[in-house]
């Protein structure tokens, strides 16, 4: 296998390399790309030291089997179609193609069947969407979700390396504020991404549109409030749902227990405990009646919400889906 990673030095890029090693996916050839800032630095992969190169116009004009992108939407828009036109299957972590009708938006445990025989660009969903749909897709299939109201508690690493650095600097006393719209240390910030014309944030609209596309159901009514919290790794979500069909609480739990890569637990897991895990932890499932319920879910945003999902896509595709 010949593989390239674009954005290899970033939070998601580094985790994708780690995850490839964990899965024992060691391509015969691997090229790592970044911007000019990190070009020339050395990264370790599968026991070897690899020099990171600056991504240039002709970098991806090669016969790669897979190219993993995690360098932001504008880089993906320019370079992903080019890599795909040279025959590579592109797995893109950015938002560039998620809403394009012809591009599959894949969470392997839910709609991995879309990968069978597919060539071209595959979009990896937004981090907060992945952990929510992993928790809800089987419940949706059985009880038909009518409404989802979700409040997120999102880690600063969701904003990339700059997000972590900004929190650490503020913890050390700095007043500098460039990444988040308000001070993040000892605070919560109820805006992630730009505020759009309809007053929802870009992150909230991603959760709405991507959840509908992955569930294959445009009728689900979704009401997110996305919030940044001073946590390094791990997003949490308080989710309220209303179903069309009546359920027993135990039936909901059955669906959660049957959901791949989801753990239903009585432990009240917090981000600190689950950072580094590839699973979604669901707890506090509760209800007063047969049509409405609440749950709490927590997952590592860089893993479950990005790198692990991307590598699971690669693995499933390479295995013939
Ligand atoms: N963090 C998350 O939880 C998460 C979750 C889901 C999706 N994503 C998406 O994944 C992507 C990367 O996020 P991240 O958190 O890893 O960000 P990050 O830590 O800021 O890393 C960005 C990476 O992109 C590279 N890069 C920037 N501009 C470039 C250019 N013009 N050409 C080539 N490489 C360039 C950077 O290289 P340098 O080292 O040279 O700066 C770095 O390797 C984004 O699209 C983000 O939306 C992130």
Detailed description of the structure:
The chain is of the alpha/beta class and 321 residues long. The protein is 31% helix and 23% strand. The protein has nine helices and 14 strands. Strands 5-2-1-6-7-8 form a six-stranded parallel beta sheet, sandwiched between helices. Helix 1 (11-22) packs across helix 9. The structure holds NADP nicotinamide-adenine-dinucleotide phosphate. Residues 6-13, 33-35, 37-38, 55, 70-73, 75, 93-94, 127, 157-158, 160-162, 301-302, 305-306 line the site of NADP nicotinamide-adenine-dinucleotide phosphate.
In brief, what are we looking at here?
The chain has helices at 11-22, 73-85, 108-111, 127-143, 161-171, 202-215, 249-257, 271-274, 303-318, and strands at 2-6, 29-34, 42-45, 48-51, 53-54, 66-69, 89-92, 121-123, 145-153, 221-225, 235-243, 262-264, 280-286, 292-299. It is α/β, with parallel strands linked by helices and 321 residues long. It has 2 domains: 2-124 and 306-318, Rossmann fold (3-Layer(aba) Sandwich); 128-301, Dihydrodipicolinate Reductase, domain 2 (2-Layer Sandwich).
Descriptive key words:
9 helices, binds NADP nicotinamide-adenine-dinucleotide phosphate, alpha/beta, 23% strand, 6-stranded mixed sheet, 321 residues, Dihydrodipicolinate Reductase, domain 2, Rossmann fold, 14 strands
Q: Any chance you could write out the topology, listing elements then pairs?
A:
Elements: E1 2-6, H1 11-22, E2 29-34, E3 42-45, E4 48-51, E5 53-54, E6 66-69, H2 73-85, E7 89-92, H3 108-111, E8 121-123, H4 127-143, E9 145-153, H5 161-171, H6 202-215, E10 221-225, E11 235-243, H7 249-257, E12 262-264, H8 271-274, E13 280-286, E14 292-299, H9 303-318
Parallel strand pairs: 1-2, 1-6, 2-5, 6-7, 7-8, 9-10, 12-13
Antiparallel strand pairs: 3-4, 9-11, 11-14, 13-14
Helix pairs in contact: 1-9, 4-6, 4-9
